[in-house]
Specification:
The complex is a heterodimer.
Chain A: H1 2-16, H2 87-96, E1 133-134, H3 137-143, H4 160-163, E2 169-170, H5 200-203
Antiparallel strand pairs in A: 1-2
Chain B: H1 54-63, E1 101-102, H2 105-111, H3 128-132, E2 137-138, H4 168-171
Antiparallel strand pairs in B: 1-2
Classes of the chains: A mainly alpha, B little secondary structure.
Chain lengths: 206, 174
């Protein structure tokens, strides 16, 4: 019965989603910004040559990387270990922590545009969902109220581990699709529609 | 041009006594690099990487910085790019777009965000596979037109304009 209920939830979520399909025209399409005079979209983050390889798995990275020492999320009810943001999250925070100019790409270091408003997470991440922590079967077992990511379906076709985690870690990109390729229309680039909190409930067994 | 000639083609090509050691090297006349490269790798890349081959190996025979630009026609040259010159890739290719990788329908399927090269138009008249790939492999010449015959003016010999990242988005479904 529980399986049928969760199957119905999955079907409902899938039928409610609408994929945007492309970075063109999305929140990360900076081609028309006055601080980007290249006429290109990808170049703000990526380049084919002479890229920054300092962050693990940074894909042909072309933007200045943040050097912030973050205050990370902590909680007495969290069973895992949360260290400094790494991998994809470190790349996201290289604009979203507010310390690196948006136009510091392609070697430019004297940019003047900074992210504003609610998109600026700042350097204190204690008020944000934890990232860059290992989310595995052991964590699920220790916590008791999160699903085993290696066996639980994500709703996107595979398991949570296959579809949402990067090398077994939860990162910003576990919830947000940076390129808007498969993001849900009308959301903050969410990979899963959060109507009915379905995104939250993908991992949190509440 | 370096090497004591007023010819254009000769630093790379010659009609006789050419170097046939590199697969598909067209009447090759320049010293071929013997460098051992560190190829690009990524946990999100499904393609297998290896040493540069084919066309890319020829390009790197100047662009890796290890062979003198005027080492052609059997002569050993002395002219090198200045250190750190941005046209020198070096032998560490981890910071460059992968090349000499097989890009076929199977790769597109396993990746999920690459256009199927055998069915997707390149924008140049035929499919990506026909217009841009060499034996189904992505090489330097998949993006750069070495002879400037069809390249977009004002670019680094790009085959397709990268305005609005059009070149990137030809293959990458983002």
């Amino acid at each position: 019965m529980k399986k049928l209920a969760s199957l119905l939830v999955v079907v409902a979520v899938l039928s409610a989603t609408a994929f945007a399909g492309t970075i063109v025209g999305s929140a990360h399409d900076f081609s028309n910004k006055n601080w980007n005079n290249t006429g290109e979209i990808c170049v703000v983050c990526h380049a084919p040559h002479n890229t920054n390889t300092s962050v693990t798995d940074a894909p042909l990275w072309n933007h200045e990387v943040t050097t912030t020492n973050f205050t990370v999320y902590s909680s007495g009810t969290f069973d895992g270990t949360i260290g400094q943001p790494d991998g994809a999250s470190k790349l996201c925070l290289s604009c979203h922590d507010g310390t690196v100019a948006l136009d510091n790409f392609g070697g430019t270091t004297n940019g003047s545009q900074f992210i504003g408003g609610g998109k600026n997470l700042g350097t204190d991440l204690s008020n944000d969902h934890p990232v860059s922590f290992t989310y595995d079967a052991a964590l699920a077992s220790a916590d008791g109220e999160i699903y085993n990511p290696t066996t639980q379906n994500s709703g996107l076709g595979g398991t949570i581990d296959q579809d949402l985690l990067i090398s077994g870690k939860m990162q910003c990109s576990s919830c947000h699709d940076v390129h808007n390729t498969q993001a849900v229309n009308g959301t903050k680039l969410l990979v899963i529609n959060n109507s009915g909190s379905a995104l939250c409930l993908t991992c949190h067994s509440k | 041009m370096h090497g004591g000639t007023d010819e254009i083609c000769i630093p790379c090509h010659t009609p006789h006594n050419a170097d046939a050691s590199v697969v598909d090297a067209p009447l090759w006349n320049h010293e071929v690099t013997t460098a051992n490269f560190t190829p690009y790798t990524s946990t999100t890349m499904d393609a297998a990487t290896g040493q540069p081959d084919g066309v890319s190996k020829l390009c790197l025979s100047c662009h890796d910085g290890t062979v003198a630009l005027d080492s052609w026609g059997g002569q050993t040259g002395t002219v090198f790019w200045s250190s750190g010159h941005r046209d020198v890739m070096g032998t560490d290719l981890t910071d460059d777009h992968p090349i000499s990788i097989t890009y076929n329908s199977a790769l597109a399927t396993s990746d999920g965000e690459l256009a199927d090269p055998s069915t997707t138009n390149s924008g140049l008249g035929n499919t990506i596979d026909t217009d841009l790939l060499f034996g189904q492999k992505l090489q330097c010449a998949s993006c750069h037109d070495v002879h400037n015959t069809q390249s977009v003016p004002g670019t680094k010999l790009l085959l397709i304009s990268n305005v609005n990242s059009g070149l990137c988005l030809t293959c990458h479904l983002k």
